[in-house]
């Protein structure tokens, strides 16, 4: 089946598809910011240029479009009826690239979270965002639990209080 648009029109349409500041990204970023989380956006030094980066906690979030990243069993991830072979190959390559980038990040010690576009539809949005907040809060707590405790070499504890006096006994007063 041939394309219904001319080559120039199709090229123009495709050039208007954004890869940054998409609606799903803005929904997640606004929610996290309002909950007090601070993050970096699209850090170029990291593999895959993650959408949201928590550098202190070594956690990244990718917010993937179901169509472009081939979300399995999702109605939004259908293959177009025109150029099906080309689209199948393109989405397969996107999935391979995603897997490589996630593996690289994990090898570097990063935690990788993925939020799918279909998880942010109004019916599922609150549940998804609350779950994301819970995961991030847990990772922050884990980060702060790694602090070293003090180790005492002896079992004797220093005495901090004054010695106890019997009830109604005269106290030492300064004369």
UniProtKB/TrEMBL annotation:
Q: Name one Pfam family in it.
A: Vsr
Q: Does the keyword Nucleus apply?
A: no
Could you name the domain of life of the organism this protein comes from?
Answer: Bacteria
Biological process (GO) annotations? mismatch repair
* GO MF term set: endonuclease activity; hydrolase activity
Recorded hits in InterPro entries, A to Z, give:
DNA_mismatch_endonuc_vsr, Restrct_endonuc-II-like
Keyword terms: DNA damage, DNA repair, Endonuclease, Hydrolase, Nuclease
State the family named in the UniProt similarity comment for this chain.
Answer: Belongs to the Vsr family.
Q: What is this protein called?
A: DNA mismatch endonuclease Vsr
Naturally occurring in which organism (per UniProt): Odoribacter splanchnicus
